[in-house]
Fold Chaperonin-like RbcX protein 2, chloroplastic.
Amino acid sequence: MVGGAAAALPMVGSSVVLDSLPDLAIPRSSSMKKKQQLAGRSVELGSSFAISGICSRSKGMARKQQQRKDQRRLVIAAELGGQYEDTFNDVKTPIMNYFTYKAVRTVMNQLYEMNPTHYRWFYDFVVMNKPGTGKHFIRTLAKERQDLAERVMVTRLHLYGKWIKKCNHAEMYQEISDENLALMRERLLETVIWPSDDTNTEKIG
C-alpha cells in the first residue's frame, strides 16, 4: 500500500500538492508580501524625494519671480515722483505755453485801447486758434499777421523776464509745502470717524 501510494504521488497535479500542504504556502505568500511592501516603500521614498525636489525648485522659481516683481514695482514707484535726474525739460514747455497765453492777453488789451480794428481781427483769430499751444499758435499767427506774431514773441519774453525778477523760489517752495500739508490734514479729517452724541450717552448709561 505504501509503495502504491508513493507511486501515485507523482501522478498528482501540482495544484493538489499545494492544496494538501497549505502550511508550506504561507511563508511564500508572506515573503512576497514583504517584498511588495519593501518595493512600495522604495517607490514611496522615491516619489517623496521627487516631490520634494519639485517643490524646492518651484519655491526657488517663485522667489525669483517675486524678486523680479519687486524690482519692477520699485521702478514704477520711482517714476511716480518723476525721474528728472539733471534736467527739467518736461517743465519748460508748459511754462513757455503759459507765457505765450499771457502775452496774447496783454497784446489784446493793448490793441483794444489803441487799435480796435486790429483787436477785432486778433480776437477772432484767438477764438479759432488756441494760444495755449505756444509755438504752434505763433507759427500759425505769423502766416496771417507777421507783425502781431513778432509782438506776441517780444511780449512773452518781456513778461518772462519780469517774472524771473519777481519770483521768489524759496517762497514758492514753502507755499507748495504748506499746500501739501493742508491737503493731507484735510484728507485726514475726512477719514476720521468722530463719535456721535448718541454713542456717548449709551456708553455713560
